[in-house]
């Protein structure tokens, strides 16, 4: 049904994720101006989700990582993050399906945190079911970004830094910052869209969900393409890949599914189905499995913290609806047997939670989401855009990814990142 990417020569895909009506309007306008309006009515567009317009120029070979990928072909390339000396550097595999037809370029990154395995399996399943001769556009998949962490079963890089706090990176910065810069400049900046795949971290599990900056209308429109997957408003923090990407006009979201250090087939299948739906909605191909794509449900959310230290025992389950005042769990001091309850502050749903464990006071135990309607979310995004436009005069084309700006996080103590993460609970 979505035909928004039939216009091969239109520059700047990134700004063109829109809902169907607006896309059709634009299509009609530009049909009038450019190519002959060949009776392209709504009805005959509807059955050509994968554009097959003879007037469209065939895609060119894609130059990436020192290679040329021919249209209609699949390639395995290698990215070498230049953090170590060349003789021992291990190249990271990058899978590319370059379609025969023009279309957007979608990037999938997984295991930026080396212990988050579900995304690796999602990228494998997705990439190997693509048929480049049937594909409109290009899919670039990096199944294991943090190869060192993956080998060690660790979230972090080998210097114990969290890679997802250093984007877009700096080629003269810390080791982590250089890896980030290399990934960003060699791969990510070639993408129109990015889905960064994660799981919950540190003994917390998440209901499969997208994290997206719902103050950004392009991101809102993109998030609606994933079928019925829950979407959580999360502006992101500086240094995260999706935040850095959005700042460069690459429309990006994070997908969270399951927990670290394990492979959860249900979470993997759910994620694959959501991205299959995305490919269909972007007009890149017809989905192999039909998901009747209900509207996504949007949430604002907050972590509810333990007020004392002790043994945390949950009384609710993931995805359960809870009422204001309901006991979510208890924390009990195992020696004095004094305890307290963690209480839901408003009606909502459990979107993330800690597994039962020993916690300290202030530990973020339950993430409770409050449902928002699509209309509320869109109105808010439009308002945020207007406010931003009023504040900043348009100063287009900021000077590329190779930023010489100071790098605030480069020099902090190694284990500070974990403490800060504990503080912000962004997890991604
Ligand atoms: Zn992660």
From TrEMBL:
Cofactors needed by this protein, per the record, are: Zn(2+)
UniProt keyword annotation of Zinc present: yes
Superkingdom of the source?
Bacteria
Stretches with biased composition (Basic and acidic residues)? 372-391
InterPro entries attached to this UniProt entry: AstE_AspA_cat, N-alpha-Ac-DABA_deacetylase
Compositional bias, Acidic residues, is annotated for 417-428
The segment(s) forming the Succinylglutamate desuccinylase/Aspartoacylase catalytic domain are 102-280
For this UniProt entry, which segments traverse the membrane? none
Q: Where is this region: Disordered?
A: 16-64, 372-428
Does the record carry NAD as a key word? no
Q: Which SUPFAM superfamilies does the UniProt entry name for this protein? A: Zn-dependent exopeptidases
Going by the UniProt record, its keywords in alphabetical order are: Hydrolase, Metal-binding, Zinc
The name this protein goes by in its record: Succinylglutamate desuccinylase/Aspartoacylase catalytic domain-containing protein
Taxonomic source organism: Alcanivorax jadensis T9
């Amino acid at each position: 049904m979505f035909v928004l990417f039939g216009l091969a020569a239109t520059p700047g895909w990134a700004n063109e994720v829109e809902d169907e009506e607006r896309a059709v309007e634009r299509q009609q306008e530009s049909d009038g101006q450019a190519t002959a309006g060949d009776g392209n009515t709504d009805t005959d567009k509807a059955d050509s989700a994968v554009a097959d317009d003879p007037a469209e120029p065939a895609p060119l070979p894609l130059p990436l990582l020192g290679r040329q990928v021919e249209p209609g072909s699949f390639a395995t390339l290698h990215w070498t993050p230049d953090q170590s000396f060349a003789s021992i550097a291990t190249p990271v595999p990058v899978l590319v399906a370059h379609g025969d037809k023009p279309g957007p370029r979608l990037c999938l990154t997984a295991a930026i945190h080396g212990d988050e395995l579900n995304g690796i399996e999602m990228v494998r399943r997705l990439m190997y079911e693509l048929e480049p001769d049937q594909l409109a556009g290009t899919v670039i998949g990096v199944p294991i970004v943090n190869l060192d962490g993956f080998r060690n079963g660790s979230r972090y890089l080998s210097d114990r830094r969290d890679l997802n706090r250093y984007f877009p990176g700096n080629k003269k910065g810390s080791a982590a910052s250089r890896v980030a810069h290399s990934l960003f400049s060699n791969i990510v900046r070639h993408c129109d869209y990015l889905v960064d795949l994660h799981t919950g971290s540190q003994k917390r599990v998440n209901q499969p969900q997208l994290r997206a900056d719902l103050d950004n209308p392009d991101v809102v429109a993109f998030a609606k393409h994933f079928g019925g997957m829950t979407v959580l408003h999360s502006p992101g923090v500086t240094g995260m890949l999706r935040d850095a990407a959005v700042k460069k006009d690459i429309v990006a979201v994070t997908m969270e599914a399951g927990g670290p250090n394990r492979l959860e087939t249900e979470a993997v299948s759910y994620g694959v189905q959501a991205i299959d739906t995305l490919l269909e909605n972007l007009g890149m191909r017809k989905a192999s499995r039909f998901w009747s794509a209900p509207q996504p449900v949007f949430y604002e959310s907050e972590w509810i913290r333990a007020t004392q230290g002790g043994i945390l025992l949950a009384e609710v389950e993931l995805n359960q609806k809870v009422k204001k005042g309901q006991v979510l769990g208890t924390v009990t001091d195992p020696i004095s047997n004094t305890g307290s309850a963690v209480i839901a502050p408003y009606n909502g749903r459990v979107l993330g939670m800690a597994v039962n464990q020993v916690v300290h006071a202030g530990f973020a135990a339950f993430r409770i989401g409050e449902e928002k309607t699509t209309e509320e979310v869109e109105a808010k995004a439009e308002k945020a855009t207007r406010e931003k436009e009023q504040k900043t005069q348009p100063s287009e084309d900021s000077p590329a990814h190779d930023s010489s700006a100071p790098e605030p996080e480069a020099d902090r103590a190694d284990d500070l990142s974990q403490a800060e993460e504990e503080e912000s609970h962004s997890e991604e």
